[in-house]
Amino acid sequence: MATPFEYGGGSVPPGEVRHARYAISETFLGDPIRVPVTVVNGERDGPSVFISAAVHGDELNGVKVAHDVAVRYDPADLAGTLLIVHVVNPPGYLAQQRYLPIYDQDLNRSFPGSERSTPAQRIANELYRGLFSHCDYGIDLHTSTRGRTTMFHTRAQTEREGAARLAEAFGANVVLAGIGEEDNSIRSSCTNRGTPTITVEMGEAHRFQRAHVERASAGIESALTELEMYDGERLEPTWRRVVNARTEKAWVRSDAGGLVDLHVTRASVVEDGEAICTVHDHFGTERHVVRAPFTGLVVGLLQNPVAQPGHPVCHLVSVDEETRAAIDAESA
Questions:
Q1: C-beta separation of 152 from 266 below 8 A
Q2: How far apart are CA 91 and CA 105, in angstroms?
Q3: Whole-prediction pTM value?
Q4: Residue in 67, 55, 50 with CA at minimum distance from that of residue 7
């Protein structure tokens, strides 16, 4: 028998959909800061999964995914519960900036938070205690930061069985494994406390990108199907690469400042020593070529065409021969 879903905002009976605004803090005027939440509680018993978006307030692809998921699933078709947190960081979302305004604190480095600490820690604590900790699994939706773009991929602590299962079911070609295990993000904090959670990274900030939104929605359906919550379609990518985040990836950085001329595209494979970009001075008299330190797949790339010394221009993950052959066959 299905049971009511209990969370900090109340109780939702089986077979019901509830839209609510859950208070997480107060403004300078003492008015509540509230996050929009949808609970879809299935008619049949099953796991509970949270889907969260915009913990960084300018990362909008996930907001559209959350919207689409909230209107797509009917309790009659669901075994278990979906908890959809449409906008985790309302102050940042309203300001259309990554961090919490005024204090410039990264909410996604503040979990599980504290009742007696900074504004970010208190907000994170309310979100964790009232929402995320009530679920069995989690999917946290992100994009790259401003000025950069990222290939669609997931991040997970794959040494944890539940997280590995969720990441595989989501069906992304690339999984970054072991990244941010203790970074106080939603993913690491929930996973370390018994709610296996994956991060989905896709595209750019400040926009809706339909291809990424549709791909993430399909990944959610695939994950729910794996968890036997929904009778849907499982994704089976033609190739899959699980990357050790400590040893098999790198941010390639410029050693000079100037104007950036990119020679590669996102999701392309570059050879060891191949030119990723050239950085020119404004007079056209000097140039600095940034080269790949190993053969790899471009999963992240600079969009803002200027750089300083130390500026990241390319996020590169290594590829083995089997993966390289599969990528070449897919693009042929």
A1: no
A2: 11
A3: 0.96
A4: 50
